[in-house]
């Protein structure tokens, strides 16, 4: 397994960001380092993680990790903890596969979304939870869920169901941990134009992916969500930003989007 553990002493503000090889996760690594955090970036694609860490500098490191694989995640968590304590876990890894109606949707697509968005998030959260709670001042579990976890839309049942589940997981964890030194933050973005998300959803069909954002004046960028992540984590340890719902101005809901023709 390729990985890089930081050489220097771990900072008290040390975060793990999953899904860090692209999009919102990569932007969050950049923003958190700028805000003074030490960050460990997790994802499967080593070349992308390596390039990000080289760009960001010594405050960032990476560990290769497949969150759908128990052994890979366990090994990654051990490598992370060997580098020092962790104060924040940013659960950004996630995906949508397909946009088919319930009547005909692929079981494998649904299974893939559940394995990553729900079980993968649960798996790494469980493994890091004890250490997060031991962090000086307390720790934070943050999830990047989605407005798909608030309002379902046609063709989105599988993705929406997985994001509803992710939001419920965060909410219930928050309730269960009251009195413990733990914050649980749920950031639910609407339309964010990232390079890969829609492309993966539509199996590499660039035309279908581009149509998602066509004519929308200023969809959100990954950096906008990274700003929310950095701001929420930067609040005092005793201030829990329970939920943030953030959309582009042009999007009122998934089905109410203004497009310039
Ligand atoms: N873009 C949007 O409009 C939008 C809106 C609301 C919410 N979100 C949510 O925001 C999060 C990030 O989205 P994004 O737009 O930044 O998408 P993205 O660029 O496709 O990023 C997804 C990340 O997840 C990682 N990943 C995928 N499978 C993995 C696995 N098995 N194990 C570990 N990591 C894995 C990917 O890295 P590797 O392939 O290298 O593993 C990648 O870094 C997702 O949870 C998504 O549901 C996105």
TrEMBL record:
Q: Which residues cross the membrane?
A: none
**What Pfam families does the annotation carry?**
adh_short
Q: Identify a single GO molecular function assigned to this protein.
A: oxidoreductase activity, acting on the CH-OH group of donors, NAD or NADP as acceptor
Enumerate the spans annotated as Ketoreductase domain: 13-181
Write the record's keywords in alphabetical order, separated by commas.
Oxidoreductase
* SUPFAM superfamilies in UniProt: NAD(P)-binding Rossmann-fold domains (SSF51735)
Question: Domain of life of the organism in this record?
Answer: Bacteria
Family designation: Belongs to the short-chain dehydrogenases/reductases (SDR) family.
PANTHER family, alphabetized: ALCOHOL DEHYDROGENASE
Q: What is this protein called?
A: SDR family oxidoreductase
Q: What is the lineage of its organism?
A: Bacteria, Bacillati, Actinomycetota, Actinomycetes, Bifidobacteriales
């Amino acid at each position: 397994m390729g990985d890089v553990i930081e050489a220097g002493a771990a900072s008290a503000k040390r975060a793990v960001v999953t899904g860090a090889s692209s999009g919102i996760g990569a932007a969050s690594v950049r923003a958190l380092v700028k805000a003074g955090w030490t960050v460990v970036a997790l994802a499967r694609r080593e070349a992308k993680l390596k390039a990000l860490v080289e760009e960001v500098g010594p405050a960032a490191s990476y560990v290769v990790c497949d969150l759908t694989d128990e052994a890979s995640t366990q090994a990654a968590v051990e490598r992370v903890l060997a580098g020092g304590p962790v104060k924040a876990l940013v659960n950004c890894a996630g995906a949508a596969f397909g946009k088919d109606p319930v009547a005909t949707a692929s079981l494998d697509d649904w299974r893939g979304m559940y394995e990553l968005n729900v079980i993968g998030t649960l798996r790494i959260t469980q493994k890091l939870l004890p250490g997060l709670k031991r962090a000086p001042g307390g720790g934070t579990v943050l999830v990047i869920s989605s407005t798909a976890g608030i309002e379902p839309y046609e063709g989105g049942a599988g993705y929406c169901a997985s994001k509803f589940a992710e939001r419920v997981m965060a909410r219930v964890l928050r309730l269960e941990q009251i009195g413990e030194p733990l914050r649980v933050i749920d950031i639910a973005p609407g339309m964010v134009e990232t390079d890969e998300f829609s492309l993966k959803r539509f199996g590499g069909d660039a035309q279908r992916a581009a149509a998602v954002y066509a004519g929308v004046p200023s969809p959100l960028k990954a950096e906008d969500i990274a700003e929310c992540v950095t701001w929420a984590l930067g609040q005092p340890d005793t201030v829990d930003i329970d939920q943030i719902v953030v959309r582009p101005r042009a999007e009122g809901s998934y089905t109410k989007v203004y497009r310039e023709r």
